[in-house]
Amino acid sequence: MTTPIGPRRRRTQKSSSNLKITILCGIVTILVLRGTIGVNRLPDPNDHRQQELLKEANRIVAEIRSGADLDDEPSRISNTTYSLGPKISNWDKDREIWLNQNPNFPNYVNGKPRILLVTGSQPSPCKNPIGDHYLLKSIKNKIDYCRIHGMEIVYNLAHLDTELSGYWAKLPLLRSLLLAHPEVEWLWWMDSDALFTDMIFEIPVSKYENHNLVIHGYPNLLFNEKSWVALNTGSFLMRNCQWSLDLLDAWAPMGPKGKIREEAGKILTENLKGRPLFEADDQSALIYLLIKEKEDKWIMKKVFIENSYYLHGYWEGIVDRYEEMIEKNRAGFGDERWPFVTHFVGCKPCGSYGDYSVERCLKGMERAFNFADNQVLNLYGYGHRGLLSSKIKRIRNDTSSN
Amino acid sequence: MTTPIGPRRRRTQKSSSNLKITILCGIVTILVLRGTIGVNRLPDPNDHRQQELLKEANRIVAEIRSGADLDDEPSRISNTTYSLGPKISNWDKDREIWLNQNPNFPNYVNGKPRILLVTGSQPSPCKNPIGDHYLLKSIKNKIDYCRIHGMEIVYNLAHLDTELSGYWAKLPLLRSLLLAHPEVEWLWWMDSDALFTDMIFEIPVSKYENHNLVIHGYPNLLFNEKSWVALNTGSFLMRNCQWSLDLLDAWAPMGPKGKIREEAGKILTENLKGRPLFEADDQSALIYLLIKEKEDKWIMKKVFIENSYYLHGYWEGIVDRYEEMIEKNRAGFGDERWPFVTHFVGCKPCGSYGDYSVERCLKGMERAFNFADNQVLNLYGYGHRGLLSSKIKRIRNDTSSN
Predict the structure, then answer these.
(1) Would you call B71 and A21 a contact, using CB atoms and an 8 Å cutoff?
(2) Do the chains contact at A124 and B390, CB–CB below 8 Å?
(3) pTM of the model
(4) Distance of alpha carbon A309 from alpha carbon A335, whole angstroms
(5) What span, in angstroms and rounded, lies between the C-alpha atoms of B120 and B128?
(6) What is the pLDDT of residue A355?
(7) Those residues with Cβ within 8 angstroms of residue A229's Cβ, 6 or more apart along the chain or in another chain
(8) Which residues contact B162 (CB under 8 A, 6 or more apart)?
């Protein structure tokens, strides 16, 4: 039984309870505030500074982007037919005249046709920061191959036509380059997620004397299965001629973004085996174009579907085999023994989502890059310590007679 | 005056107080937990996925890096003298023999000396993600200039010598390239934070017939003031000859990281005006080397200190004037009227800390890039909508006669 408590003591006890509750409420308030403003720990000054710098950089980039957006005007009234540009019909003749008038810019040098490698990526920083690092490594890889083989490069960071954005951006780019570079015999489009992995192999251009488009793929997948992966537009050659301008004109109509591209996507999914439903992409559109060509076949007779070497090499079956290749083979084959190109289809390191695990993709790309880089460094007497290592070691003794 | 309270009511009141305190404590506990585990709001699924991908990417990159670190062996016993490689004394003769034996690889093409542009950056992703994006834009800028002017590029992502890391990495790289490319007459080192901003200007190589090193700077700053910014090693030409190998050998000793570099830094700060105290950098070391040269002057007589055009153009005085230049001048001057190179000294977009505001640097780089890019896009009939805009507009009507 409790001892009766006098009034003063009850007041003291009550005040004490109130005080406890007040203190607790104060703590609760502070904690709610902490939780809301995200202050979870004592700040590390360096970390804080780094975060601040990062935020500021992002703010400025967003400002740069938004200033750009404000300037955007619609480029075409939507019910007019899309066109890459005014119709050009006489390019073969015009080009021939230009070449004759400019003997210092021949389309063949030392018996080899002049090839211009064309690649590129989005104008803005990658959503996933690691993406820009791999874009950088990818262009370094291409610079190395092209230096060794006497090819020039165009790296595009511009959307020349706002309607043909994303993967379609290559079409207006290719058209512009064909017309601006009559001295170039072949344009070679290569995706930014495709790496050279055979630094010695050269495209056997003499095979293609009678063709204007060289693309990796499988005829049975194209004509029998009508598969949406029958060809790969991640790496292909396009001859500088009227036919190519006509092809681009025939190819472009599914590209304009918005309703046209969405509706075209549905047609492609209905007609191509295995294609998921999404907006029209340039690869599916080209496949569809080749399939539905009628007897005329003006397109197909000039297309060479190449699979005797890895003009495009699907990465998944390649990246685990590099050590085996080093042990058993040598550079120069360009095929499954030593793939010419390793193409990281579906990895999308620049974007938010890929179709494969981040780990598999990044490690695969690192290995492919180093596998290729070794073939260049070896020329200078160096090599990577391992296919996942950026560290370098000497592989050949430096001598005073070098 | 309070009414006396009976025992049962007191127990009830006390239980009620205890309950309130218990509930409050429970809330406090939950809030503390929330604060500690950083759960501040209802998660947005996309945001969460993006964060997950980012974390995973960072984890894999860290794993790739750590696997590399484990392989690292010390490359030199610290009390032996550092050397770039075995002493080479006959390079002029050896190179001449090689050139005679390889007439298909002349060092002069169409009357112009063969120049190899050399640049590079760190092997690992930038600490500041925006850094990789600007490295990418920087190399695209260099690709454009070199394609227009028939120059080849080496983009280095390797530390060929772990002791000469950071800004010193260019020394072993230059030595390797001189020896591996006898067909190259000049190596042109250019920093990754330097952009071409005059796409027409060409280096007046005939000025340098009697010189082996061409570097931007000011003789009075060098010999009178002994200023640590008298020269700039962010953009310089080095002839392929014995003298250059000797220069590299004389230059390298302050470079080995650790105690040597730190002590050398102190010497440089004591001797060069305005130099803050930090480890030895290649630029200060070269300045010091030129200053302390005795009567022999084997080095200085072959060095051309150039300031008649912006072989290096300090960005701060340039980036706000592009619109004025466009209005009053034209490409081709290469000097203050239309700077050949705009060099973002001190911005360090790849690192954590720069000497300038992030805003000023990023906007400056964006403007410089677009100012240069316009000179290339204009050739194709396009241009940026503004110097801060990545958006493109047609500046010339496309016609069917193009």
Answers:
(1) no
(2) yes
(3) 0.86
(4) 4
(5) 17
(6) 79
(7) A221, A274, A283
(8) A391, B72, B75, B257
What sign for the dihedral angle of Cα B294, B298, B301, B305?
Answer: negative
The answer to whether residues A232 and A217 touch, using CB atoms and an 8 Å cutoff, is yes
Q: Distance between CA B329 and CA A109 in Å, rounded? A: 37
Nearest partner of B235 among B274, B283, B199, judged by Cα: B283
Which residue in B has a C-alpha nearest to residue A354's C-alpha? Answer: B53
Reply yes or no on whether the pLDDT at B354 is more than 80.
no
How many CB pairs below 8 Å do chains A and B form together?
A: 267
State whether residue B351 is helix, strand or coil.
Answer: coil
- What residues are paired with B154 via a beta bridge? B118
Confidence of residue B2 (pLDDT cuts 50, 70, 90): very low
Nearest Cα residue to A135 out of B186, B239, B121 = B121
Angle at the Cα of A294 (from A290 to A300), degrees rounded to 5? 40
For residue A176, what are the CA distances in angstroms to A170, B32, B384? 10, 61, 16
Helix, strand, or coil (residue B288): helix
Measured in degrees and rounded to the nearest 5, phi and psi for residue B345 equal -55, 130
Measure the N-to-C terminal CA separation of chain B; round to a whole number of Å. 103
CA distance, residue B378 to nearest chain A CA (Å): 11
B133-189 per-position pLDDT tens digit: 999 999 999 999 999 999 999 999 998 998 999 999 999 999 999 999 999 999 999
* CB-CB neighbors (< 8 A) of B1 in chain A: 7
Cβ contacts (< 8 Å) between B175 and chain A: which residues? none
Residues from chain B contacting residue A1 (CB–CB below 8 Å): 7
Amino acid letter at B182? P
Residue that the structure tokens 């040597």 belong to: B260
Specify whether the backbone of B173 is left (phi greater than 0), alpha (psi in -120 to 50) or beta. Answer: alpha
